[in-house]
Amino acid sequence: MHELSIALSILDLVEEEAERQRGRVAAVHLKLGRLSGVVKDALVSAYDMAREGTSLAQTELVIEEVPLLAHCSVCAADHPLVSIQDLRCPVCGNPTPDILSGRELEVYAIEVET
Fold first, then answer.
1. Integer Rg of the chain from CA
2. Where are the alpha helices (DSSP H) in 1-114?
3. What pairing do the DSSP bridges indicate for beta strands 24-33 and 105-113?
4. What percent of the chain has pLDDT over 70?
5. Nearest to 5 by CA among 49, 46, 64
6. Whose CA is closest to 73, among 51, 93, 44?
7. What is d(CA 58, CA 49) in angstroms, rounded to the nearest whole number?
8. Over residues 7-32, mean pLDDT
9. Secondary structure of residue 42 in the 3-state scheme
10. What confidence tens digit (pLDDT) does each residue in 32-63 have?
């Protein structure tokens, strides 16, 4: 379960920022794409387990799921894809190798109370 190592890395990053800001972290905001290779529920469970007994025990993990979006060169348009197993344009059926979003695994905000 690599989600535990990811959760521990997130907590390390957040702890460093809390020390720098000299405050208490209330929430961590994370963008998570469907192609990131991370299972949301497993990450939430791992995060809950990893934060126990730490100074971040009350810190909330807020996950924003990023949709899978690709550019179709045939349609010359961006389209949300229905499945990660079928990377084809939902309009014309053309393969869409140009993925615009959906790979994210990014801490994009940390709420710190000073």
1. 17
2. 2-21, 40-51
3. antiparallel
4. 99
5. 46
6. 93
7. 12
8. 93
9. helix
10. 999 999 999 999 999 999 999 999 999 999 99
How many C-beta neighbours within 10 Å does residue 21 have?
13
Q: Which residue reads 């990131």 in tokens?
A: 36
Fold of 2-113: hypothetical protein PF0899 fold (3.30.2320)
Name the nearest CA neighbour of 102 among 30, 36, 29.
36
DSSP conformation class of 29: E
Report the DSSP pairing between strands 60-66 and 69-72: unpaired
Rounded Cα distance between 11 and 29, Å, is: 12
Q: Which two tokens stand for residue 75?
A: 């349609």
pLDDT at residue 82, as a whole number: 85
| In contact, 35 and 102? CB cutoff 8 Å | yes
Phi, psi dihedrals of residue 54, rounded to the nearest 5°:
-110, 175
- pLDDT score of 1: 60
Count CA atoms within 13 Å of residue 108 on its CB side: 11
Cβ distance 24 to 18 under 8 Å? yes
